[in-house]
């Protein structure tokens, strides 16, 4: 119904749900479904806004839906965390505009009483993928 409301139902199968459910819950997202390829496109960064503190379990949750014979592939796309500033404090470095825009964006999200997205460094991603057997 939500896909129809968004006008994207005609694009194929659209799965909308909560990844934070556990495998034994009847409402588990993609229960008993296995895929050749999983594309986690900016998924980890957005999880904090919808399922806080679930990021460390996300790859394990996705892995149960990946072909177990070793031929399945998962692609993880994300963004390195942006620095709070560029250059010396108060230097007015041109790159600071990105940090300032991010701060304004985060302030707007917080004022709307939502949680901000949280990017993770590639080293965190690699460590967690390894912990989950990737």
What does the model show?
It is a single chain. The chain is 36% helix and 7% strand. With 134 residues, the chain is mostly helical. It has 2 domains: 2-81 and 118-131, no CATH class; 82-115. Strands 1-2 form a two-stranded parallel sheet. It is globular and about 55 Å long.
Beta-strand residue percentage = 5-15%
Question: What overall geometry do the principal axes of the alpha carbons give?
Answer: globular
Largest sheet properties: 2 strands, parallel
**What distance lies between the first and last C-alpha atoms, to the nearest angstrom?**
35 Å
Total tally of structural domains = 2
Number of DSSP strand runs = 2
| Average pLDDT reading | 84
| Assembly category | single chain
Catalogue the unreliable spans.
none
- SSE order in H/E notation? HEHHEHH
Which strand order do you get reading across the main beta sheet?
1-2
Helix content: 25-40%
Structural class: mainly alpha
Summed up, the helix count is 5
What is the rounded Rg?
18 Å
